[in-house]
């Protein structure tokens, strides 16, 4: 019986799994169907590839607190759009300080222009700082301490915001340009440390300063000269940040603050500073363009890389801006950020 069972099993033909004749016919009919012709709209449609890495896209995150306290010290961050948790890209960063005559910066002013940088692959943080016109305790160096704290925050939280911590620069306009220059000139200066993110550097790779006040002692010396636009007067914000009041007058402390606030006076012979780009309108009626000229000369005389762009006839802000000016700034930023990848 064992022999018979073996033979009967061996004689069975090999079985192949296949579709039935009816099912095969149906499949044949499906494959034989002609591809439907596209509609006229589909035929003429413009086709573009998908964008899985979200290249050239940007996102805005508002009111990111960079320094704790009751002063609402925040930054708005415009960054390249991330495609997910596994997005390991890191971008160079730009800290931006809007001009405000050292009062509270309006972070919305240049959002549209800053977004161009974000779409090109930069993380841009536009920051505010304390305002001495609202609180007399916030005289210099409060605004500088805050801006330095913002740089350290971005570096300390580089992973969270996809920032390359080794590629951070600063750009400012007017009083923000003054701030940017001071940050470039006083990297990791213990005089301006406020205890936030200790051990993290506030050094930057480059500085861009548009129509900046660079020598505030000139404004102090012009006190009382009504024909001088660039002058200290008691009702103005410069007096507030210097701590000058009708009661105190122009004290030695006020003069010392003005000197410490002056980038022109902070250039030390033999010391190397990051590359600096200064831009100024020759028709500026708020800050004389000679303030940028003398600053650039001082840096070059001391062997540092400094470049000056003069916008013919341009006033403070307003007609100073053009796509050409923005292109010059973005090219400088790209050159000294080793270009975004």
Question: How does this structure look, described?
Answer:
The chain is an alpha/beta fold and about 350 residues long. It has a domain at about 60-215 and about 260-335: Rossmann fold. Helix content is about 30%, strand content about 15%. It is built from eleven helices and eight strands. The protein has an eight-stranded mixed β-sheet, sandwiched between helices. A hairpin with a 5-residue loop joins strand 1 (about 60-65) and strand 2. Helix 5 (about 140-155) packs across helix 6. The longest helix has 15 residues, at about 140-155. The radius of gyration is 31 Å and the shape is elongated. The chain starts with a helix and ends in a 5-residue tail after the last helix. The model is unreliable at about 1-15 (pLDDT under 50).
Low-confidence stretches: 1-15
Kindly state the percentage of residues in helix: 25-40%
Order of helices and strands: HHHEEEHEHEHEHHHEHEH
Shape: elongated
Number of helices: 11
- Main β-sheet, spatial strand arrangement: 1-2-4-3-5-6-7-8
How many distinct beta strands?
8
Summarize the structure.
With 341 residues, this protein is of the alpha/beta class. 31% of the residues lie in helices and 17% in strands. The protein has a domain at 58-215 and 262-336: Alpha/Beta hydrolase fold, catalytic domain (Rossmann fold, 3-Layer(aba) Sandwich), CATH 3.40.50.
Note the main attributes of this structure.
alpha/beta; 8 strands; about 350 residues; single chain; about 15% strand
Give the arrangement of secondary structure elements.
Layout: H1 2-10, H2 21-32, H3 40-43, E1 58-67, E2 73-80, E3 91-97, H4 111-119, E4 123-127, H5 142-156, E5 163-173, H6 175-185, E6 207-210, H7 216-221, H8 237-242, H9 252-260, E7 276-281, H10 290-301, E8 306-311, H11 323-336
Parallel strand pairs: 3-4, 3-5, 5-6, 6-7, 7-8
Antiparallel strand pairs: 1-2, 2-4
Helix pairs in contact: 5-6
């Amino acid at each position: 019986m064992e022999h018979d069972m073996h033979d009967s099993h061996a004689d069975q033909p090999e079985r192949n799994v296949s579709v039935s004749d009816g099912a095969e016919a149906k499949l044949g009919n499906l494959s034989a169907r002609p591809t439907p012709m596209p509609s006229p709209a589909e035929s003429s449609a413009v086709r573009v590839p998908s964008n899985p890495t979200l290249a050239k896209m940007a996102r805005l995150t508002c009111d990111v607190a960079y320094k704790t306290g009751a002063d609402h010290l925040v930054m708005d961050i415009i960054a390249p759009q991330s495609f997910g948790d596994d997005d390991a890209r890191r971008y160079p960063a730009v800290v931006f300080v809007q001009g405000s005559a050292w009062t509270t910066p309006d972070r919305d002013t240049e959002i549209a222009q800053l977004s161009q940088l974000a779409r090109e692959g930069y993380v841009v943080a536009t920051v505010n700082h304390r305002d001495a016109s609202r609180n007399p305790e916030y005289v210099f160096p409060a605004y500088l301490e805050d801006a330095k704290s913002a740089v350290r925050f971005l570096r300390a939280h580089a992973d969270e915001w996809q920032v390359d911590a080794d590629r951070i620069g600063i750009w400012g306009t007017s009083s923000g340009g003054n701030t940017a220059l001071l940050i470039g000139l006083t990297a990791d200066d213990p005089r301006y440390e406020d205890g936030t993110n200790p051990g993290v550097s506030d050094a930057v790779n480059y500085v861009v300063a548009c129509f900046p006040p660079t020598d505030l002692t000139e404004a102090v010396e012009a006190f009382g000269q009504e024909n001088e636009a660039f002058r200290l007067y008691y009702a103005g914000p410069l007096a507030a940040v210097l701590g000058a009041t009708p009661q105190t007058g122009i004290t030695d402390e006020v003069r010392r603050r003005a000197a410490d606030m002056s980038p022109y006076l902070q250039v030390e012979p033999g010391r190397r500073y990051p590359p600096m780009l200064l831009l100024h309108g020759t028709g500026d009626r708020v800050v004389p363009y000679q303030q940028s000229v003398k600053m650039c000369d001082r840096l070059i005389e001391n062997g540092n890389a400094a470049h000056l762009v003069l916008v013919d006839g341009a006033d403070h802000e307003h007609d100073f801006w053009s796509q050409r000016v923005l292109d010059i700034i973005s090219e400088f930023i790209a050159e000294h950020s080793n270009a975004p990848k």
